[in-house]
Design a protein that fits this description.
This protein is α+β, with helices and mostly antiparallel strands. It contains 29 helices and 22 strands. About 35% of the residues are buried.
């Protein structure tokens, strides 16, 4: 079929859709936009070789399918005009309307045509232009959601026709889609669009993985069909037998990208797809969903701790449903979802229901308020003070588009936070002053660490004290106190308001404390200033005081300069296999290694070592049949070692002697050793000694630390534990360390 005929056919399809719901004047506007865009794009071609106009036309058809208004469809037809032709935004405004021009401007990429930034764009890198363009889109979206809807369908069509790009550009587009556009669609409840964007992106980035999961998913659907027919009839019979009308019971297999992410989390092979049958039951109303749940749990036992109520406790998007897992009479576990027909419609199209179901009760005031709250979060986050014009967009991606949890204030008010957020993030979300004066937190009425992530459903009560100030350690991402851009920006702002004399005074105290902790109090301050290219020590103090230079960054740089001074040992032994490849094995000490030929262990397998009488350590997969336990359990266990896979290259660790002064309390030593376990740090030696009867205790330990950053991080994390008075790196080692060398604590009380 000729290209012109294809355009005419797609045009007729567009007009057939708009004729269903648009009035006469609106249809004329869409026709005018169609002819204008086709004329201005002319013979321009896409990378696929198609006429360029086919792209905006397809985007307009997507929108018409969801019954968006004439202004949105016109903007979709015109959205590439300002970027790829000589037509300006002002001309579009004059020719059509300011409303259409505003939508086009919101979608248009940041080039010479974008208002207010055209001159600056020439000085930006391609990445900065992309980020600033995203920021502009997000800002426009908070004013009018239709902007981002057009952009999402623009990206959907581009991903469907991505084969015209080079492989490198395809991968870049796919990564951007997963990072920004799929999460945007998810937060707006556009589940169908989100799923398509994710699947198309995965197919570009991991084609073999995509195909493996797709084939396995289809095989499972076919294999589960007989069981589904039985389950479907059983559910229909029991519910309708109790007078509950059931609209539909359908199979709901997980989408491809969700399967991929689950397998990544489990570190499993891509053929190990979850084999549980998923069933969705559609009911008349909300009460019927809860009643049906009771009947299903009466018919089949529920699996404990596998029930979620997303009707009364909403998810971060517009999704509502009851989730349960039951044990079927034939022994299989089944996942059952119960929701109303209206909830199902909203689950598929989300915010698009605002137009598709206009003038119906489906688009409720509650749904509209949740979308408005989402836009307010974007607006607040994108306006955060930042070092460059593009970082506001990245803040939105990190804080608003990431997976969310819902926590509650002491008064029961709900708040959404990114997964991984802490009590400090929560405090700053409520108010800057509350974050600045946060001394501690109660979570579910129990004391809770400030650097531990909150959980979904937690009730959080911030303990404030007007005498305290923010801690500079909060700004170090590795220490885990703050995860959101909002909290980090507000805490940093407090330090930047310090007067110059006060910043210098506090900075000097911080430096002396860090040097004492590192066991390097003798180092000249001017010499350290030179490491950071400051003119003198005063500039170093000033930047430390204002948190422009973090204490942990300071200590890491100092330790890096002296890292080669102490004793070191190798971490991991190499082992060769029959095909010539080499792997690194950890926790094997200095043993000679041999890979079992029967089970052929490879990275990602759980492995153990069996120490033979000749001194060779044989490496097996856990459960290898050649591990003969019958020779005697006691002897077998004494020769078995738990091993792990190391990095590609052999690493060296430094032996770090630490001296820790504490006030004794139950569980303190356990918390220290737990820290080491979490950071994969081996404790070579540990001993304690008591001073008097007042509870003072000294702990000496030797740690195997891989790099300066890890050492500084663990020093600060030990110091942050309750009842720890001081922590001190013993540079000269314990052999030459006397009690008179106890750490100095008089200069500066740690924040």
């Amino acid at each position: 079929m000729a290209e012109r005929e294809l355009v005419i056919e797609d045009g007729e399809r567009l007009f057939a859709l708009t004729n269903i719901y648009l009035n006469h004047d609106d249809r004329l506007q869409v026709m005018k936009a169609f002819e204008f865009a086709r004329w201005k794009h002319g013979a321009q071609r896409r990378m696929t070789g198609e006429l360029f106009f086919t792209h905006p036309l397809k985007v307009a058809i997507y929108l018409a399918g969801y019954r968006l208004d004439a202004a949105a469809i016109s903007a979709a037809l015109l959205h590439d005009i300002a970027e790829d032709t000589i037509v300006s935004i002002e001309q579009i405004s004059a020719e059509f309307s300011p409303e259409v021009a505003r939508l086009v401007d919101g979608v248009t990429k940041l080039k010479e045509v974008t208002r207010g930034v055209a001159e600056k764009a020439k000085a930006l890198s391609a990445e900065e232009v992309q980020q600033a363009s995203l920021k502009k889109l997000l800002q426009a979206m908070t004013v009018d959601v239709r902007t981002v809807i057009i952009k999402l369908f623009d990206r959907l069509h581009n991903m469907n026709t991505i084969h015209g790009m080079s492989p490198g550009k395809q991968r870049a587009k796919a990564r951007e889609t997963l990072a920004v556009y799929a999460p945007l669609a998810y937060r707006l409840g556009m589940w169908q669009v989100k799923s398509e964007l994710e699947a198309l992106s995965l197919e570009v980035l991991e084609p073999n993985v995509y195909e493996s999961i797709r084939a396995e998913r289809e095989r499972l659907i076919r294999a589960q069909a007989p069981l589904f027919v039985v389950v479907q009839q059983q559910i229909m019979d029991v519910l309708m037998g109790h007078g509950l009308p059931v609209h539909e019971v359908k199979m709901s297999p997980e989408n491809i990208y969700t399967i991929y992410k689950d397998l990544e989390k489990q570190d499993a092979g891509y053929r190990d797809v979850d084999r549980l049958l998923r069933v969705t039951v559609l009911m008349d109303d909300m009460i019927a969903c809860y009643t049906a749940l009771g009947h299903i749990h009466h018919m089949w036992p529920a699996v404990p701790h596998r029930f979620d109520d997303y009707i009364s406790v909403h998810r971060e998007n517009l999704y509502q449903s009851l989730h349960t897992t039951i044990v079927h009479s034939e022994g299989q576990h089944l996942k059952v979802r119960l929701r109303t027909v209206d909830m199902e419609r909203i689950a598929q199209m989300g915010v698009l229901a605002r137009w598709y179901y206009a003038d119906t009760p489906l688009w409720t005031k509650g749904l509209a308020e949740r979308v408005d709250e989402f836009f307010r979060n974007i607006s607040q986050t994108i306006s955060i003070e930042s070092a460059d014009s593009a970082s506001g967009a990245q803040n939105v991606v990190n804080d608003v588009l990431s997976e969310q949890i819902r926590v509650y204030s002491k008064d029961g008010d709900p708040y959404e936070l990114p997964q991984g957020s802490t009590a400090i993030d929560f405090a700053y979300k409520l108010h800057s002053e509350l974050g600045n004066e946060c001394r501690g937190v109660l979570v579910n009425d129990l004391p809770f660490p400030l650097n531990k992530p909150l959980r979904n459903g937690d009730q959080v009560r911030i303990i404030k004290d007007v005498r305290v100030q923010p801690r500079r350690a909060w700004l170090d991402e590795d220490l885990g106190y703050i995860t959101t851009s909002t909290a980090r920006s507000r805490a940093r702002r407090w330090f930047r308001k310090l007067s110059e004399p006060e910043a210098i005074r506090q900075g000097r105290e911080i430096l002396m404390h860090e040097l004492t902790m590192l066991g390097m109090a003798h180092l000249p301050h001017n010499e350290i200033a030179t490491l950071f290219e400051y003119e003198d020590a005063t500039m170093l103090y000033y930047n430390l005081g204002r948190a422009e230079l973090l204490p942990t960054t300071l200590s890491t740089r100092i330790m890096t300069a002296h890292w080669a001074d102490g004793p070191a040992l190798s971490k991991g032994n190499s082992v060769a296999c029959s095909d010539g490849s080499t792997y690194i094995i950890t926790n094997a000490n200095t043993s000679r290694l041999h890979l079992c030929m029967t089970c052929s262990p490879r990275p990602r397998d759980s492995i153990v070592g069996y120490l033979r009488r000749n001194g060779v350590l044989a490496i097996h997969r856990e459960g290898c049949p050649t591990l003969n336990v019958d020779r005697g359990r006691l002897e077998f266990n004494s020769r078995l070692l738990k091993l792990g896979w190391g990095e590609n290259d052999r690493r060296e660790a430094r032996i770090i002697p630490l001296h820790v002064g504490v006030y004794d309390r139950p569980g303190l030593l356990h918390e220290m050793t737990q820290l080491m376990q979490e950071k994969d740090i081996n404790i070579r030696n540990i001993c304690t000694s008591r001073e008097g009867d007042d509870g003072e205790l000294y702990i000496q330990m030797e740690l195997e630390v891989s790099n300066p950053r890890q050492m500084v991080r663990i020093l600060h994390q030990i110091e942050a534990l309750v009842n720890v008075r001081s922590v001190h790196h013993v540079v000269e080692g314990f052999d030459n360390f006397s009690r008179s060398g106890k750490p100095v604590t008089g200069y500066y009380r740690p924040e």
